[in-house]
Design goal:
The structure is a homodimer. Chain A contains 16 helices and 17 strands. Chain A is α+β, with helices and mostly antiparallel strands. In chain A, a hairpin with a 5-residue loop joins strand 16 and strand 17. The mean pLDDT of chain A is 91.
């Protein structure tokens, strides 16, 4: 697309991609780093996989909704695809290096994935997933309990608005389906249930009726799905309605979810940050046990901001070894967009510098470099305005970037080994003070505000 | 590629891609974070651009060697390319958001780029570039001096073996070409000179002769290119041989390089970490002033590990605004491979955990979770072995991962609110000590070793 008036190409990006200005990128990166730090504090190990994989490997599972969205490319006679999630690459990685990994294998991976779906507001074709998974031959339910502990730490450290981690167990749903004799349509039911929050109870009701369920069954099912809160109370309602002991899935599911709930207290998660909720189902059919969704209490319309669950036989397309896993995923690109939309992200930090050093004249640049070196030795990120410009322009530059301090150095400062420090927020100026005093002033704030 | 004995797909990746085991990934990530921290300490602002861009935008410059290596894909009727460097996306970004950016615009960008070149040892089709650039309408040479200061800080913090930042100025080379009347073949000469370190003096000599230069000129040229060390001495040799005052380029180039060298001392860079070297040329024809290469003194065969320079009119394909820039790039994927090869990277840290908490029995898991919470509150990353296994297997897991400490909790510890702490490196064990003492012991080491 050439510009009509000149021979220039109009600078633009393809639709469906998020690109941020530096201030927002700083906020985004700080979220990434917090998530990474929490994942590491739980001992998860980092991996990164190539953005493109061999088509026959990545699409081994084949079919499905995802298939149509995959970005494909060829190089020579090699068919390649861009990764569309981090779970398939994980399965491939674990299968490929199984002999060099220690199990339980606890890995985190924070990379962008690619889906060529129709671009719409808040849906991106390139987006970060921040995943953790624990993989082992024989994974105890205690691992399922660890996931909400990680989610809680992440969202607390991210200072998100009030959130609730909703926990369910696929076995409970399956047990209910079995006892109600509706197993034959269970996959369809899960898909419909998954839309409960989005399309509302009435729509779900009518969709369930079209599956051939009678009105009584639909009502009973929706009663169960509306259960949330104390697992003891939920257990007794199910027991009274269906008789839980007669069904293995139901027994196991209720037992597992109790174990998970008991552990959450040990991890120190406040009672109001989690809840058993039989209404969450996760559409994906590969979950087999515990499932999670996390929502912001005051913004239900955003939907789940961190989901996951327990699954069996992760590597079945690549190896005979039967490995189980449990994991969660944060879709950070979409979350960032949503948090911006509701005003929950402050971009008041729009620079990495805490100080702009403004040499009065080009002759003062060498001295400015020495001052910068001293600041950096004291862990103060700073930059020097190195171009020819009036002092007022240098101040304006600092102020536009939201940098809190300007240090001016001129003849007088240079000859006396001092600096003039100005706090742009208060206007307060300390003229010709020793460098060490300036450093102490700036660092005092870092430690006390 | 199906496995012959079963219906499994052989797990593998395409050739030319680097994929690391977690221990190496930890080392790699720590390098990434050090580079990022140094870039930010100089006030560079982060940006990230989409992995794919519109073909007409990304290839606006057109032609060239790069063009053949570009990964192309189509989605609907949109032609897209994967980014092959970070400079073209920077030019597009700056042009697109010019009104929302503050100039001088100082940005860093650390992302992977894609080149479908023939895969060979140490050359990758997907590799990280870690770039900084300063962009402005009227960029003083002082900005050129800042780049070696950043390179020095990065490589010092990365604890690389002895390195030298070699500095040259394209104007000096151009001035010499002008005075020697060989401007007509200057591009070819630069390409040949760029291979000096790789193919040796003799091969360069014979290639220069085929350009039509006579033997005397080739010798004189190679004399100049072999000059390195004090800029004063270099200046006087050039002056005596060619008479520098008669050429504007030569005058300006020598003046600029002197300014750069004078600044390096102010930045506190030790004298033995930089050198003027007229022999470095950088093949790329867009450099117009200062150029940099960085080499490891004891491993010249590795070539430059950080290069860059000054260029004009960054955005000419997208806008009429004439912006100048200066920048450097670290090709981290290749550098990591090289450092591994020469044994300069220690992968002794192969886990993110400092402690594996081993519950004696499954009944002790809840207490283990409380202990883990205490450790994490004291900034000690740790994990719990949550599966059923003998204690010996739990110890083996910790030891395989290189985790220094194991904490065992059983009946006795649980009832007395204590832990048993074992240092796997020394074998020293402290039985049933208070949690606080265990924390103090582990943290003492962090602060004192």
């Amino acid at each position: 697309m050439k510009n009509q008036k000149s021979d220039k190409v109009t600078p633009r990006i393809a639709s469906g991609f998020m690109e941020l200005l530096p201030g927002d990128q700083i906020a985004f990166n700080s979220m990434l780093r917090i998530i990474q730090d929490v994942y590491e504090s739980f001992g998860f190990l980092p991996i990164e996989t190539p953005v493109m994989e061999l088509a026959d490997v990545l699409l081994a599972k084949g079919g499905g909704e995802t298939d149509k969205q995959v970005y494909r490319l060829t190089k020579g006679d090699t068919n390649l695809c861009l990764r569309f999630d981090l779970t398939v690459p994980l399965a491939r990685y674990v299968s490929q290096y199984a002999n060099q990994l220690s199990f339980p294998f606890r890995r985190y991976q924070m990379q962008r994935v690619y889906r060529g779906e129709g671009a719409q507001k808040g849906r991106y074709r390139e987006f970060y997933q921040c995943d953790i998974d624990t993989i082992s031959d024989n994974l105890s339910v205690s691992n399922d309990a660890e996931m909400p502990a990680v989610i809680y730490e992440v969202f607390k450290k991210l200072q998100l608005p009030d959130f609730t981690i909703k926990i369910n167990n696929r076995k409970i749903l399956n047990g209910i389906f079995e006892l109600m004799n509706i197993v034959n349509v269970s996959k369809d039911i899960l898909t419909i249930i998954d839309k409960l929050e989005k399309i509302g109870r009435e729509a779900v009701e009518s969709q369930l009726l079209t599956l051939g369920l009678d009105y009584k069954k639909v009502n009973l099912l929706l009663l169960f799905l509306s259960l949330s809160g104390s697992i003891g109370a939920i257990d007794s309602i199910i027991d009274q309605s269906l008789g839980r002991d007669s069904n293995v899935n139901l027994c196991n599911g209720l037992e597992e979810i109790k174990q998970v709930i008991n552990s959450l207290e040990a991890y120190g998660i406040p009672r109001n940050n989690y809840r058993v909720d039989l209404g969450i189902a996760r559409g994906l059919d590969y979950y087999t046990g515990t499932i999670y969704e996390t929502t912001l209490n005051d913004y239900p319309e955003i939907g789940s901001i961190c989901s996951g669950g327990r699954y069996d036989d992760l590597c079945k397309f690549y190896t005979d070894r039967n490995l189980q896993g449990v994991g969660i995923s944060i879709g950070l690109t979409r979350l960032f967009y949503q948090l911006k939309t509701i005003g929950a992200i402050s971009s008041n930090k729009t620079s990495t510098s805490r100080v702009v050093i403004a040499p009065f004249d080009y002759k003062d640049r060498i001295y400015a470099m020495q001052v910068a070196k001293s600041l950096r030795s004291s862990e103060i990120p700073c930059e020097i305005y190195l171009d020819d410009a009036k002092l007022s322009k240098k101040f304006k530059y600092a102020s536009n970037l939201g940098v809190p301090y300007v240090i001016v150095v001129g003849d007088s400062e240079r000859s006396k080994n001092t600096v003039t420090l100005k706090d742009l927020r208060t206007g307060e100026q300390k003229s010709e003070i020793p460098i060490d005093l300036a450093i102490a002033t700036i660092n005092w704030e870092k430690n006390h505000r």
